[in-house]
Amino acid sequence: MEEKRKFKGYIQIYTGNGKGKTTAALGLALRAAGHKQRVYIGQFLKGHLYGEILSAKILSPYITIEQFGRSGFIHVTKDPDKEDIQKAKRGLKKCLNAMLSKKYRIIVLDEVNVAVYFKLVSEKEVLEFLDQKPEEVEVILTGRYAPASFLKRADLVTEMREKKHYFRKGVKAREGIEK
Fold first, then answer.
1. Most buried residue among 45, 50, 58, 159 by CB atoms closer than 10 A?
2. Quick check: 149 and 159 in contact, CB under 8 A?
């Protein structure tokens, strides 16, 4: 009987200004859950109920989602609020603990690129997180504004580009589609 090969985890990035970065990460989580693999998703900047939170309850224990933001998605302009910085730093620590726990095959840092862009966590802190990635864990970083150092470090980079979006015509986020 052939010995089962050890799983090799890679670093993936979903970035760009188009829709679908979180959705792509969730699709990967759904696929993994179908194979009874556990996924931990840490959502930076987010703190309200999305459809994926409800789905994760159904797919428990295979998918775990924790949010590290205030109620709603914060819109930082210049100086981030101390509370947002604290939530993001605690979130990165929780993601690290999940990654090192040996309980999860996949770790998703949803919107972490945006958290770095708005200086809620530093680029250096995320790179140090990646330095500790066990070989058998897949890590996904999502969000606009992925820094060049992340792109260089990643094994797979997908850029979502907006060509056309109904939001420009005034369509609000719809339950089950955008939220």
1. 45
2. no
**pLDDT of the residue at 176:** 77
Q: What's the CA gap between 19 and 10, in Å, rounded?
A: 23
Instruction: Determine the pLDDT at residue 1.
Output: 47
pLDDT score for 82: 92
Locate the domains of the chain by residue range: 11-160
What is the SS3 assignment for 130?
helix
Class for domain 11-160, per CATH? alpha beta
| Residues near 115 by beta carbon (within 8 Å), at least 6 away in sequence | 44, 45, 88, 121, 143
The CB density around residue 125, as the number of other CB atoms within 10 Å, is 17
Edge-to-edge strand ranges of the sheet holding 106-110 = 63-68, 39-44, 106-110, 138-142, 11-15, 156-159
Taking alpha carbons only, the member of 104, 177, 112 closest to residue 145 is: 112
